[in-house]
């Protein structure tokens, strides 16, 4: 596991949250991207070395909709950068962590991603992110 790749924040209204975080971080949203397979619409802001991912549910079955219904808006997950997501997934599985998919999935912002169930990670939803090489986009 390398640096924190982003902090995921669940929001009810992506536009309003984007405006708020632009003021808070004094930096513009640099990308808006829907990941239909995840049921989310995302907005990204970069503040120094830190990346913030705002997440709005794009359908009622979205994990973000369920999260907000249960816990309200707020920090949803921590994503870590990995060099080799398949190797990290195998290592974590071997260590007894519960992975939420058998294979990496296509995430936002040109990443391959996989999630670790919060029940096996001390109550924190952890995401692994491997950048997709330019030639493979
Ligand atoms: C991929 C695009 C983008 C990117 O970065 O590229 C994203 O980050 S997409 C982010 C949205 N997608 C996901 O979150 C996928 C992984 N999440 C899941 O599969 C589910 O949300 C899961 C399994 C974590 C929870 O789903 P479930 O249907 O089991 O919901 P429950 O409310 O029953 O939760 C069970 C249990 O877990 C606790 N929980 C749920 N979400 C979180 C969370 N984000 N952080 C910490 N804990 C969480 C929930 O409170 C329940 O615990 P309990 O003690 O029973 O209340
Ligand atoms: Co994320």
Automatic annotation (TrEMBL):
Transmembrane regions: none
Keyword terms of this UniProt record: Isomerase, Metal-binding
Gene3D superfamilies listed in its UniProt record: 2,3-Dihydroxybiphenyl 1,2-Dioxygenase, domain 1 (3.10.180.10)
Assigned EC number: 5.1.99.1
Protein name: Methylmalonyl-CoA epimerase
Keyword set includes Magnesium: no
Molecular function as annotated in GO: methylmalonyl-CoA epimerase activity
Lineage: Bacteria, Pseudomonadati, Bacteroidota, Sphingobacteriia, Sphingobacteriales
Coiled coil: none
Pfam families noted in UniProt: Glyoxalase_4
Species name: Mucilaginibacter humi
Enzyme class: isomerase
Record's keyword annotation contains Isomerase: yes
Domain VOC: 3-131
Family classification: Belongs to the methylmalonyl-CoA epimerase family.
């Amino acid at each position: 596991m390398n640096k924190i790749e982003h902090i995921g924040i669940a929001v009810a209204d992506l536009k309003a949250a984007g405006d708020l975080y632009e003021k808070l971080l004094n930096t513009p949203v640099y990308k808006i991207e829907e990941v239909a397979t995840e049921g989310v619409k995302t907005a990204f802001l970069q503040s120094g070395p830190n990346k913030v991912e705002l997440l709005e549910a794009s359908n009622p079955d979205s994990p973000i909709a369920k999260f907000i219904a249960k816990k309200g808006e707020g920090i949803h997950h921590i994503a870590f950068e990995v060099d080799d997501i398949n190797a990290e997934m195998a290592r974590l599985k071997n260590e007894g962590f519960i992975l939420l998919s058998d294979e990496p999935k296509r995430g936002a912002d040109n990443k391959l991603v996989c999630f670790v169930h919060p029940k096996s990670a001390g109550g924190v939803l952890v995401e692994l992110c491997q950048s997709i090489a330019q030639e493979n986009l």
